[in-house]
Amino acid sequence: MPATDKSILSRLYIVAACLVVFAGAVLFKLVSIQVVDGEKYMALAETRTTKMFTIAPNRGNLYSDDGSLLATSVSKYNIHFDAVTVSEKDFKENVKPLSDALAKLFNKESSHYQQILRKARQNQNRYALIARNLDYSEYMAVKGFPLFEKGPFKGGIVIEQSTKREHPLGKIAERSVGYERVDEKGYHTRVGMEGAFSEYLSGIEGKRSKVKIAKNQWKPIGYDNIVEPKDGYDVYSTIDINIQDIAHHALLRQLEHYKADHGTVIVMETKTGEVKAISNLGRTSEGKYYERLNYAIGESHEPGSTFKLVNLVAALEDKVIDTSTVVDTEKGKWKIYNHYVRDSKNGGYGKISVAKAFEVSSNTAFAKIIHNNYKENPEKYVNRLMSMDIHKQLGLPVKGEGKPVLRYPGDKGWSGLSLAQMAYGYEVAMTPLQTLAFYNAIANDGELIKPRLIKEVKEWNKTVKKFDKEVLNPSICSKETAKKVQQLLKDVVEQKHGTGHGLYSPNFSMAGKTGTCQKNYVSKDPDKLKYISSFAGYFPADNPKYSCIVVIHEPDKSVGYYGADVSGPVFKSIAQKIYATSPLTDEVDVKEAFENRLEEAYQDYYANIQKQYKEVPNVRGMSGMDAISILENLGLEVEVKGNGKVKNQSISKGTDLNKVKKIVLELS
């Protein structure tokens, strides 16, 4: 054999050997992928085509004390169309009937929907938008339309559910009702009652599997969730919507009249500490008012003359004075070191009793009482205030409670003037709610109660947790002292010389104290001097039912700024309207009357429901709570199995109600 032929043959052998080795390597790799790494690559492929999504549960409802909604979650639905899963036969038969049904429901032309559906079919679109933000009744109607009734696989319907939080009262108490928001980084912002009680309202997330159909587009797989979300509990607050409405509008009118910067009002039930109304209104650049910040809880400021009650109680408890002790107001101006303390009345009040000094709100009298009796031992004075818990926060569940300011001798800011300044509400700071809690304690003969915004947490009609009265201090002062200052608070309004006498009415009694505090008083520019006007007290005077505080910041000085003129009328308006709309009679009578009205309302509601339904409705897909409510209102006995949403019902829709007594619901 020639050398050339041998060379060619050798090369062929080499090529053949290489091919055999390559084929072996490919075969080995295929076996390795299939057998050794099979599960790994199958899992990877699965994650790239399907993905588990979380489903936000419905937040529980937030109610007022009578069961009226303050905040609720409303389900909204988006409907898309998967044009790929539908057979050609089903599409041709149903495209026209489906378009007609959609057009009738949404008040559009049938051709509009035919164009959307046909275009989706032509482009093999698996996520064509049909309708957005549907409510539950609209969603249930669309599910029953031609083609869509065949479900997600044969009918091509793709359903996306979301929830929206709504406040039926609108802007009233918006800040107190609050909200919970989560940003893109997962940071939670919790405000008001919604934020404070989020652990009960939130619920537990569910899981839903979705398949990837295009870039950043995921289609839910089937109707059912992998894990059903668990709805949050319902929270019943202490807010009385009638009193809330009264307080809101009384404050708003006064803010508008005095062109004030902002203001707050709180109404609290005296014996229980239940907050019945809390309104916070701030002024916009256009002169309108809205719930800007929770001033009632979060804004700590110098209280001014409303703090004289604290000082009066302290001095009486330490027995350095009595209400009959005489004090010389020195023509309304008293010099201490290089500082002058002045009364609002030129020329002062002469020599007057401590009782009258309180009723006329004499700054000079109170400055002399506190300074002269405690200057040798200022620690005794501050310790007495601390024994009344003036320095402590109330420990509210709502975020952002302001911190009280109460300096101790030797602290930064303490000076020889501090006792005199603190005597009439300067160099100290409290929030409106903290001040109200003290006044409420006096109305309760010295028992300091923690203000409360929540009554109980419920799951349907089952109580999960109940919140009762909480006593912070059983006795901030003796009952003897409490009785003395109760009379003086009453005299502030009833006596002709009292600063609150302009609020007096023979038809109902009130007790309280006015307060007028300067802001920016360190400035020498008179134009920068602003005021805080307040009134704190309770009503009725002799058997208190409610305590109330009104604080208005920076009223227009040209219109007025004294607490008796600015804040006092709000207090009176609230008390007057509460008397008029719900007379403070025996609680048993009120409860019985309320229950009678409630029963009448329920009967009317049931009658309307029964007029609407003559057949068993379809409740599949509804939450168990909603389904039970509807069916029981129709007079049916309902048996429930499981939790979540209705998966099956034992009696089919359309069955004559007169032939049915009991229905069994199977929940997923």
Task: Describe this structure as you would to a colleague.
This protein is an alpha+beta fold and 668 residues long. The protein has four domains: 13-54; 56-237, Penicillin-binding protein 2a (Domain 2), CATH 3.90.1310; 243-318 and 397-408 and 421-581, 3-Layer(aba) Sandwich (Beta-lactamase); 604-667, 2-Layer Sandwich (Trypsin Inhibitor V, Chain A). Helix content is 38%, strand content 24%. It is built from 22 helices and 29 strands. The strands form nine sheets. Strands 2, 3, 4, 5, 10, 21 and 22 form a seven-stranded mixed β-sheet that branches. A six-stranded antiparallel β-sheet has the order 13-12-11-26-25-24, sandwiched between helices. Strands 1-8-9 form a three-stranded antiparallel β-sheet. A hairpin with a 2-residue loop joins strand 15 and strand 16. The longest helix is centred in the first third of the chain and has 34 residues, at 3-36. It starts with a helix and ends with a strand. Mean pLDDT is 85; it is low at 585-591.
Provide the helix percentage. 25-40%
Mean pLDDT: 85
Domain module count? 4
Shape: elongated
Report how far apart the termini are: 85 Å
Radius of gyration: 36 Å
The proportion of strand residues reads 15-25%
Counting DSSP E segments of at least 2 residues, the number of strands comes to: 29
Q: Major sheet, described briefly? A: 7 strands, mixed
Q: What structural class results from the helix and strand content?
A: alpha+beta
Number of helices: 22
CATH class of the largest domain: Alpha Beta
Protein name: Penicillin-binding protein
GO biological process, one term: cell wall organization
Main location: membrane
Organism: Maribacter cobaltidurans
